[in-house]
Structure formats: C-alpha cells, structure tokens
Specification:
Length: 70
C-alpha cells in the first residue's frame, strides 16, 4: 500500500518565503528544505541532555553489571 502525504499551509512572512526560496535548488521541495533545517538543528532539550550525560561519571562494565545485578 502506498503511503499518502497530507499537505497543509504554513503562514510565513514574505521575507521568510523569499529567504526560503534561495534554498530551493536541485528540485528540492519546501518540505525537504525545512526538514533538512530541522534535522541539522536539534532542539535545545537535546543539547541539555548531552550536557547532563557528559557530567555523569564513566562506569566500568563491572560497575554496570553490579548496578544491574548481573
């Protein structure tokens, strides 16, 4: 069964549309351009989680096993 896409209108200012049109090269749709931007710019919550994890102490495999009761 083929997947169907549902499209919608997104209101943007004329200056935003003009800037977006500059990225429309190689036959890319606006949908593809916007998704590229989203995927290359993770939300702040992602970076906060990365920072939180970097502050956690590194555990050896033995420590992990002990904590998990293995």
């Amino acid at each position: 069964m083929a997947a169907t896409s549902r499209y919608t209108s997104v209101p943007v200012r004329a200056t935003t549309l003009h800037a977006l049109q500059a990225y429309r090269v190689g036959g890319k749709s606006y949908d593809e351009i916007i998704l590229d931007f989203i995927e290359s710019n993770p939300p702040a919550s992602f970076w906060k989680e990365i920072e939180r994890r970097s502050r956690q102490p590194d555990l050896s495999l033995d420590e992990v096993r002990r904590k998990l009761g293995l």
